Amino acid sequence: MKAVKIISPGEAKVITDVPNPPRPSSDNILVKIFAIALNPHDWKELDYGEPSTLGLDLAGIVEDLGPDVTNGFKKGDRVFGITHGGNKLRPHNGAFSEYATTREGVLIPIPEGKSFEEAVSGGIGLLTVGQGMYQEMALSWPNAPLKEKQQILIWGGSSATGALGIQFAKLSGYEVITTCSTNNFDYVKSLGADHVFDSRSPSTGNDIRVFTNNQLRLAWDTIGEHGSPESCGAALTSEVSEGKPIRYGTIVGGNPVREGEVINTLSTGYTVVGEDVEAMGRKIPAMPKHYDFIKEWFVLVEQLYRDGKFKMHRLDVRQGGFEGIVKGLQDLKAGKVSGAKVVYRVGS
């Protein structure tokens, strides 16, 4: 089969004679892939250079099922979700290939009327929203929304993850403050953002603190670099009091925000499959509780998606199949993608 493989740091090639995956074991499902989506993590793994198959986001058709699959999937079902490309422990498995294997709990049925291209844009973003906002930051769930007003800052609202974060925070009853470049203001407002600030302004953190009367206690940072942690720290309240936690969550590891005053949380996605992962020089042990959480979270996501309660990010659907993916990763790294999710059709 075809697959996009890391050859050396910064170099990826389409290999055409990769062995097909074996029959799935346990609660794993083999997916014939029809569409994939790019994530910043993909080019970062490529730059690190660990020989493996790239790709996290996939959508396709169930080709085969392990003997312990219990959630009702059957051969021929249309699904989307994630697999751990770039994993040294499973170097032949990744989304940027004709077939990939992943666990049943990180796959979601594609509702009738939704395309592979639309669905594939959501896997990593929906996972990250669940792990970052609901598991780590302990926000109220969309099916049990807040009854009292509470504000949350979502930094990077026009990113693929930020766009989903805005919608889920609104479903959970929060008043959403977000940031993005000025050309994306109308877009994030269409997603439900209540207040929008310019992410490129050096005063935005302080401006938000003034706007919120120094009362903001929740910030979720979907960028995690280029000054966003410091800006989130400036936006969060300076009033530290027992019983009123101040929380900052991010998806990129870095220096803590106002350590000792703010509860810092990090979600990386590595742990959600519940299996050992070795990637980018890190060994991450299996965390079954994280997998159990995402299984429960994706059940709710399936219902909300089917009922039209949220929409996926804007799409940048590109031609070129597997060969196009390599060019797309270069564009993503160079910052040539803004306010859209890059998607490729790779099967028919």
Automatic annotation (TrEMBL):
Molecular function terms, GO-annotated: oxidoreductase activity, acting on NAD(P)H
Pfam families: ADH_N, ADH_zinc_N
SUPFAM superfamilies xref list: GroES-like, NAD(P)-binding Rossmann-fold domains
CDD domains from the UniProt entry: enoyl_reductase_like
Signal peptide: none
Keywords carried by this UniProt record: Oxidoreductase
Ranges where the Enoyl reductase (ER) domain occurs: 10-343
Assembly mode: Monomer.
Family of this protein: Belongs to the zinc-containing alcohol dehydrogenase family.
Record protein name field: Enoyl reductase (ER) domain-containing protein
Organism expressing this protein natively: Periconia digitata
